[in-house]
TrEMBL record, chains A, B:
Annotated CDD domains: HTH_LacI, PBP1_LacI_sugar_binding-like
UniProt xrefs under Pfam families: LacI, Peripla_BP_3
Keyword Transcription: yes
Origin organism lineage: Bacteria, Pseudomonadati, Pseudomonadota, Betaproteobacteria, Burkholderiales
Keywords: DNA-binding, Transcription, Transcription regulation
InterPro entries hit by this protein: HTH_LacI, LacI/GalR-like_sensor, Lambda_DNA-bd_dom_sf, Peripla_BP_I
Name listed for the protein in its UniProt record: LacI family transcriptional regulator
DNA sequence: TTGTAGGCGTTATCAG
DNA sequence: CTGATAACGCCTACAA
């Protein structure tokens, strides 16, 4: 195996060639390192001659300033971190997409952490991460100990997904209770009387969504039953489907904690011989892309996942730059998207 | 708004308290910084007294070593980068999941870059990224200029998705042509005679998959038509559906470049009044999670997305540690997953 | 406009 | 076992 390395004894292939430093550039251009530094960082004018020489030399040497060394002086890493619960959940995927775009536009690199992979204690993970970033976008669904530490000793942070109990925090998210209220009213207006909510108690938002449904059905005589799964994934929806749907007085509508669960529920309902929405309506939350491509298409609530990610990162960038206006919670409006999986009771296709 | 900051004039909320340095620890414990450093990094024994004092002081001060400063001297950042094409595509999401898990286990942070967000030139993005990481997992679908630079001047890299033309490179991926060959044989064996391939010429793999289909149908009298879309997304599948399916001699099977396209195609086929698989079979690639939850469930080819991500990162970690055995390409076996969207011609439900 | 020099926090070397 | 000290590459007063 041949390569272009300086060091042919490099193990396992090409060893990285030692990169040019600011001193190499200074020497080659016949100026001081300070001049090079100012040239790189802009904001000063130079002799035509110096400018030309520097431009040439820098290109020839392929010089790129070392972010670590720079960071030591400026105290800025040029990185921001994002901590999410599970990248396989399209809701978080969209969140990352939005955050990633804004970070990129701000010239910041994104340090990604999937908390679902956590063998490491959450707090230790946050502490390790925090020294490598200028700020953090994190899920509000962290332990109180982690949140306390973050607020007191951590880098600037923006929380997504819910209002935190800490004052002075920045957070952004959709109102889960309100979203569920709207979905509940939609179902009530369609004439449903017996509704099952398949929640995921491992998520804080699940209780909010349940509460919203309760509000929607308050005094309307609608019966709301509560189920719970171990994880917000399609497999769990499939698993719990029979016990939700085949009981003695089966529900005429099922609301799932999220679209993934709803996908599994709907699929298994059809396997069990039920017609959706003829026999039972199904609805979820998050408006993941795939909810459009089931048959029937899944009624869901758009929680603005990508926008939440983008806004959270936008606020973080502002905080890092010292432009932030103060703490507080920003709430996005959720939208119910009625689709084929919910239908008025009494109607037939 | 009140906070616990040292500096009440901090803009936009809490300013990060200046973290304890190794010198603070040394002074408080009455030892030298060198001793503290060795204590932190292990691999040496100490007096019981020193050990106790250091343990105490470090905890009290909450000291965590500064990764930037350490990186300057060790030459290691403790970060690895991953460059993918579009995180919204579940294939890449799984890839990141696998890579993330392995990186975490190796104690490395993951710097994530979504190339689809690229206003910045690809090469510039890579150069900026490369100084911040010890290694890179990147898509082989980069421009030749980028690959050249990466091989010559970049950090250790592992390419996923295809064999690169550069010798001495590490790459890992599934064999697209072989995968398509298997899928093609499956369709041929089911008795299909007129097959449409909806490719995405923007991806290198698409040509490989087309070639695999051609091999499968060689000399069998099966007709293979080629279509092309602008992006590998469901919307494009929907858009092209009518022109693929409603022509004068419509195909009896459609193979899409990936599952996302297939989802859109299948959905729109049903809107157009066609029965899948009765009138036309549909199949895709990647085995994204959602392909199980369409109706009918989508026949697809499992390309081992998450495993590819994990293996790529595993090889990268080995290279970084100098344990790598040499360059080369690692090929994963793809599996055809026959599901409800493909059915033998002549059979009826 | 340009140069000099000090220091950011850590590790590695070498001496005690 | 422990300590003093020189780097690592860069930025930033301050001086010229």
């Amino acid at each position: 195996m041949s390569d272009l390395s300086d060091d042919p004894t490099a193990p396992g292939g090409t060893r990285r060639r030692k990169a040019a430093t600011i001193r190499d550039v200074a020497q080659a251009a016949g100026v001081s390192t300070a001049t090079v530094s100012k040239f790189i960082n802009g904001g000063q004018r130079f002799t035509r001659e110096v400018e030309d020489r520097l431009t040439t030399v820098i290109r020839e040497l392929g010089y790129v300033s070392n972010p670590l060394a720079r960071g030591m002086i400026t105290g800025q890493t040029g990185n921001v971190g994002i901590v999410i619960l599970d990248i396989l959940n399209p809701h978080f995927t969209s969140l990352v997409k939005g955050a990633s775009r804004v970070a990129r536009q701000a010239g910041l690199n994104l340090l990604f952490t999937d908390a679902a992979e956590g063998e490491m204690p959450e707090l230790a993970m946050l502490q390790a991460l925090s020294r490598r970033v200028d700020g953090l976008v994190v899920s509000a669904r962290l332990s109180d100990a982690s949140l306390d530490w973050l607020v007191q000793a951590g880098p600037p942070a923006v929380y997504y997904g819910g209002r935190t109990s800490h004052p002075g925090c920045f957070s952004v998210g959709s109102d889960n209770s309100e979203a569920a209220l709207m979905l509940g009213r939609h179902l009530r207006d369609l004439g449903h009387r017996r509704i099952a909510y398949v929640g995921f108690s491992g998520a804080r938002w699940s209780a909010d969504r349940h509460a919203g449904l309760l509000r929607a059905f308050e005094g309307s005589g609608v019966e709301l039953r509560l189920h719970d799964v171990q994880a917000p994934v399609p497999e769990e929806g499939e698993r719990i489907a029979s016990s939700v749907l085949l009981c003695s007085e089966p529900p005429d509508a099922v609301v799932a904690y999220n679209d993934l669960l709803a996908l599994g529920l709907m699929s298994q309902a059809q396997v069990l011989g039920l017609n959706v929405p003829g026999d039972v309506s199904v609805a979820g939350f998050d408006n993941i892309i795939y909810s459009r491509y089931t048959s029937p298409a899944l009624t869901t609530v758009d929680m603005g996942s990508e926008a939440v990610g983008a806004i959270a990162m936008q606020r973080l960038v502002e905080r890092i730059r010292g432009e932030a206006a103060g703490g507080g919670h920003e709430t996005l409006i959720a939208h119910v998207l009625p689709r084929g999986s919910t239908r008025r009771r009494g109607e037939r296709a």
